[in-house]
Design brief:
By secondary structure, this protein is an alpha+beta fold. The protein contains 6 helices and 21 strands. The strands form 7 sheets. Strands 4, 5, 7, 8 and 9 form a 5-stranded antiparallel beta sheet that branches. β18 and β19 form a beta hairpin. It is elongated and about 70 Å long.
């Protein structure tokens, strides 16, 4: 009798423990995670990620994104593993097939299980998308959100109707110039052209100053200030957008190249600029791109500035007579 009572007590104790554990699990708060937009889409790769805003009260043990050609992908499908903490993270998706639509979701796991973010879809292109300028320079391109950008700075010496752009090498001429002109950094085309492109004053960009001509290839244009804003907003705002645009490492950029991860594939390089004295400055430390938007009639136009020492995209104004880079945007 005593043995039976002891056995019954043990069974009751086990059932109680199971019930308590079950109640705790039922009362647990699930992980909360959202999927970051997909960008830098090529034939075989893309970039996404996630943002974990709540760990549900338990330590995150894994996180990443999973993808599939089927809806609602889970971690038994293709997936990344991107450390194990809360907050925002970037995931690099590889091994994709051209001309294919994929579904992607961010995920995060703790001891209670795995939670998934919202599902997004994207389609890989059929061929690498390139564009050619009037000088027959060929540029790679990248789709970021709803926009398609050149991945390289413009290096044409002609408008797209083959009209030459004046090359201005000496400082005295550059200082007083209020008509279109371009140059190469330190007048060394052979050294700086391929990596950094040409430097143009704003009059090259302005349709009124250049007689209605377009420096970009047909079907492309110099982005307006609003279109630059669309890009930086898509990337999470000016405070973080610069790092997402900059080429990683210190091969081109000075250290520390703050925040650079190039998650967009935009691959910004520090091309420097030509100042109002005609001097060449800023190589390896900054890059500045023109917008097509004028700030006032006489002096300023809007531009975007990146620097090795910070991760933000500084959108402000620059002197029209300055020599800055140009990135073209697809119509």
């Amino acid at each position: 009798m005593k043995s039976v009572f002891n056995m019954s007590g043990i069974i009751i104790l086990i059932l109680s423990i199971i019930l308590i554990h079950s109640c705790k699990k039922d009362n647990a708060t699930p992980l909360i995670i959202t999927t970051l937009p997909v960008s830098a889409i090529t034939q075989t790769t893309a970039t996404s990620g996630g943002n974990i805003t709540s760990d549900g009260g338990d330590i995150v043990t894994a996180r990443g994104v999973c993808w599939s050609i089927l809806q609602n992908p889970v971690i038994i499908n293709d997936h990344t593993t991107d450390s194990s903490s809360t907050g925002s993270f970037i995931s690099y998706i590889t091994g994709l097939t051209a001309t294919t639509t994929y579904h992607v979701r961010a995920y995060a796991s703790n001891k209670l299980g795995t939670s998934y973010g919202n599902e997004l879809t994207f389609t890989t292109p059929s061929t690498p998308f390139t564009v050619t300028d009037a000088d027959l320079n060929v540029y790679n391109t990248v789709t970021i959100g709803t926009q398609t950008w050149m991945m390289e700075n413009l290096r044409t010496t002609k408008y797209n109707d083959n009209t030459p752009i004046p090359l201005v090498t000496d400082n005295k001429s550059w200082i007083i110039l209020t008509t279109p002109g371009y140059c190469w950094y330190k007048n060394m085309e052979s050294i700086y052209k391929i990596d950094y492109g040409a430097l143009y004053n704003w009059y090259v960009v302005d349709s009124e100053s250049n007689g209605g001509k377009n420096i970009c290839p047909a079907g492309w244009h110099v982005p307006t200030y609003a279109e630059w804003t669309t890009l930086t907003t898509f990337l999470g705002g000016d405070p973080v957008a610069g790092g997402k645009l900059k080429e990683i490492g210190t091969t081109y950029w000075l250290s520390p190249n703050d925040g650079a991860n190039n998650e967009t594939g935009f691959s910004a390089l520090p091309s420097g600029n030509r100042d109002l004295a005609g001097d060449y400055v800023g190589l390896h430390s900054n890059c500045i791109w023109w917008s097509a938007t004028e700030e006032d009639v006489s002096t300023y136009a809007w531009r975007v500035y990146l620097d090795y020492s910070f991760r933000n995209a500084d959108r402000g104004v620059g002197y029209k007579r300055g020599g800055f880079s140009v990135r073209c945007l697809k119509n």
